[in-house]
Write a structure and sequence with these properties.
34% of the residues lie in helices and 16% in strands. Strands 3-2-1-7-8-9 form a 6-stranded parallel β-sheet, sandwiched between helices. Strands 5-4-6 form a 3-stranded antiparallel β-sheet. It is an alpha/beta fold and 245 residues long. It is elongated, with a radius of gyration of 19 Å. The two termini are 21 Å apart.
């Protein structure tokens, strides 16, 4: 009988246009806690409050200290075997793009080229009035000097380029919808699939496969479900694909 990894390899090899959808779980093996898994970020602090639009505009001192600190934890980490495996799958033409909810930039660091960061990134910041872009480091240095909130020359507030709780989705979410609709296979890695509207994307693809430590609301609808660590599952997948070359 075929193993789940072999079934996943079949799905990818038989698909004409496969995409990956990743969540915080793909980066836990890089030392970044997720939100909902055991030991996740939500166990100690309420990220929905600290990383919210309300906090940014009504309690900026708290946002630019605690919120920025929480975001800063995710920077300067290294990609793990799961990120590298997805980059390799793209290089081999087995997936066409990675749609990620993560803001940590690890898919780029691992070598993935076609990445849609639907919740933003930690490389940049922008002025909420004129849209001018700034490096993320500028926010950190201004906050460290006590300039809170950091202001643009136009008078607008400079904020991180991440989707905060209460923010609308960025225009690139439309690209993610297009990719999901086009896909005949979506490989979901490390996502609880509980955060809307990204959690609706798997419904748009013809078939899905899931690698996640815990069960997700989509498990019953998936062609393959693997409840393992993303690093080992994707490393095994590459081995199976290599054997078939
Ligand atoms: P989530 O925290 O809701 O779910 C993560 C899932 O990954 C859990 O179900 C968990 O069981 C699973 N998981 C944990 N470690 C794993 C591993 N090694 N291998 C496989 N699965 C593993 O994550 P989400 O669905 O991405 O939603 C959380 C939101 O928080 C997202 O919107 C994201 O933007 C944000 N977030 C991002 C980061 C990051 O950029 N790295 C980190 C924390 C939260």
């Amino acid at each position: 009988m075929k193993s789940d990894i072999e079934k996943l390899a079949d799905c990818l090899m038989e698909s004409k246009y496969a995409v990956a959808l990743t969540g915080a779980g793909i980066s836990t093996e890089s030392g970044i806690p997720d939100f909902r898994g055991p030991g996740g970020l939500w166990q100690n602090v309420d990220s929905t409050e600290i990383l919210s639009r309300e906090m940014l505009y009504y309690r900026p001192e708290h946002f630019y200290s605690s919120g920025l600190e929480l975001l800063n934890i995710m920077r300067n980490k290294d990609p793990n075997p799961a990120h590298k495996a997805l980059a390799l799958l793209e290089q081999r033409g087995l997936i066409q793009c990675v749609i990620t909810q993560n803001i940590d930039g690890l898919h780029h660091k691992a070598g993935s080229k076609n990445v849609i960061e639907v919740h933003g990134d930690l490389r940049t910041a922008f002025c909420d009035a004129c849209g001018r872009e700034f490096p993320f480091e500028f926010l950190l240095s201004e906050a460290e000097e006590g300039i809170i909130p950091p202001k643009c020359t136009c008078g607008g507030i400079i904020r991180p380029n991440v989707v905060l709780f209460g923010d609308p989705m960025p225009p690139c979410f439309e690209d993610a919808i297009i990719q999901a609709k086009r896909a005949d296979f979506m490989l979901v890695v490390g996502s609880s699939l509980q955060v809307a509207p990204v959690s609706y994307l798997p419904r748009l693809s013809r078939q899905i496969g899931i690698i996640n430590l815990e069960p997700t609301p989509y498990d019953r609808a998936a062609a393959v479900v693997i409840h393992e660590k993303a690093g080992s599952a994707l490393t095994d997948l590459i081995k199976v694909l290599d054997e078939r070359r």
